[in-house]
Structures are given as C-alpha cells and as structure tokens.
Amino acid sequence: MNSTTTIGVLGGYGAVGSAAVRRLHQAGVGPLLVAGRDPARAAGLVRALDPAGPPAEAMAADLDDPGSLDRFAARCGLVVNCAGPSYRVLDKVARAALRRGTDYVDAAGDDPAAIRLHTDCGGHDWLAAGRTAVLSAGALPGLSGLLPRHLAKDAGPLLRLDAYLGGVSALTPAAAGDVLLGHGPEHGTPAAAWRDGGVRPRALEPRRGLCLAAFPQPVNAFPFLSTEAGRLARTLAIGEVNWYTVFGGHRLPEELATAWALGSTDPASLVAAAAQDVRHHGSWYGQHFQLWSGSTDGPPAHSLTLRADDSYELSGFMAAAATRALLVGGIPPGVHFAADVLDPRETVAALSADPAAHIETV
C-alpha cells in the first residue's frame, strides 16, 4: 500500500469510528471514505475534519445490504469496520473486503468472526489472495491483550497475571448488544481461571470494594476468563491468569444479570442502566495488570495501569493503529488478532502520547 490508498471506515461516524477517523486524518492517512447507513451523519463528520488534511468523502453503506457493502469495498484499498454490534457484523464486512481484494481491520470481530473466517470462509483464502484481516482491534479485546505483552517483555519466567478491566461508561446500542451476547463459550468462561496450561472452571469468586490505581473509586470485579486471556496465557506461557470484568456502578451489572437470566436481546435496558451509573459515578475506564515473575511470594514484580475517560476513544486508537501498521507492511497476510501482531512497545509509546489515555508502568 501507499499514501494514496483509500481507507474506508464503515460506521465511521459512530463513537469508535469517529475516533478512528480523526486519528487517521490527523496522521495524514488517506484518502478517507466515511461510510454508514446515514450518509448525512457521515458527511457531517467529513465537514468537521481539518480541510488541510487528506481528502475525505462520505458514502452510504448498509451492513444488511451485501450489494451496498460490495460497492463500498470496491472503492477501498483497506476496509476498517467500526460498525456494530459485532454479533450482527460477524464476517459480513470481511467477506466483502476479501471479495473485492482489500485488506481488513475490525475494531471488534473477536472469536466468533475469526472462527468463521478460518472455517466457512477459509483462513487460507486470505493467504492465497495475499490479503490481511486484523480482528479485535479495540480496547477489549485488543488493547487488553497487548498491554500485558508490553509488561512481560523484559520479565523472567511468567508465573501469574491478574487483570482488571472496566469502569463506568455510557453504552451505545451497538455496544450494549455486544455486552448482552458476549458471554457464550466463543467469548469466555465465567468464574474460570487459567491454571497450568488450561481453563479451570469455577476457580474464582467476585471481588468487591477493590481499590486499584486504574480506577478512581472502589470497584466490584467479576471473574470472566475471556478467550483472549486464554490465548495470551498460551502465548506467553503464564502458569496462572486471573481475569476480571470491573463495574464501577451497580445498575449495569444488575440489569445485565437480569437480561442474561431472561434471555433478553433488547439492549435498551442496558443503555438506560449504564446511563444511570454514569449520572451517579461519572464516566471513566481503566485496565490494571499485575504480573509476578520468578516468584509469587509478595507483591507483583511488575504492574501497568491504564486510565481513560472513554473506552470508545481507546478502541478508535487501536483501530487506527492497526490500520497504520497494515499500511506500512507491518502485518503479514492471513487472519490475525490485533494483540498478536501489533508491536507492543510501539503501540504503548503511541498510546502514551495520545490524550485519550494515561499509562503508568512499574
């Protein structure tokens, strides 16, 4: 690819997409094609961009219209998907990109999309075409799998990793939809931990009233061993991984538990519950990692704290980082997760300079 490659961002005017578009445009990446179901909103974002930057254009593209996706992908040298919810997107946009011979970045994607790209579509098709698909280029999963790699880069034998991820944030309907359906075996195992090379069910209990540097107030943490955490444990050969989802408020976890119990797929109640938590506690997000190497006696040998006001901005950062890495040839053909192929040192350095995040490493 070169500096004239057209980058198409589907869902480019949403919370994640607009964050990615702004970063790409500020970095001089383009031309940009901002697309979505509402071309007026796409045009509004384009007008708000600095006219001195790369060219940008709005376009209508509908996730539920394969012909529309094909027309969009045909105009792009690289397709970036920031539309959601990911359980509806799955591999739809990736397939359109492959049909049109373009590379692909997804701010979500996750294991359900990866499974389909490796089976139904065939991961080998991407290799045969010499094209690349990068999935999970968001805050969680994505950044959550990359930050521990940065923390472990100079550590000795990795014995234990504890991770706490979450906070208080408004939910878009797409994000709420993903939260509702993001608890099946394709996503992870509740109450499980990683022990000596495998998943150990029912190994952990919730932790309440925790005070951690990543969060401005005490939080409740619920164990959920994500598939990303399992991949991380295998890749880094960590003996023990304890992975927690953090809630800073009470309404969202209560409403989520009720929705799961009733099998609800309506995101409206989660959106309202998240908004109520924001009114009471403010909006903030964090990721906190503790790593033991050499010995598990005493405090962790290394720790990393990420604090942010907005997780959507972090996802936009990651989507833009994956896009830029692809443009310079830093990711080989095939289907990959962002945390596996982005350079941890370079990505953390760039994020440390981004106004959306504050990182401390000990």
TrEMBL record:
SUPFAM superfamilies named in the record: NAD(P)-binding Rossmann-fold domains (SSF51735)
Parts forming coiled coils: none
Pfam families: Sacchrp_dh_NADP (PF03435)
Domain Saccharopine dehydrogenase NADP binding: 8-109
Family matches, as Gene3D superfamilies: NAD(P)-binding Rossmann-like Domain (3.40.50.720)
Protein name per its UniProtKB record: Saccharopine dehydrogenase NADP-binding domain-containing protein
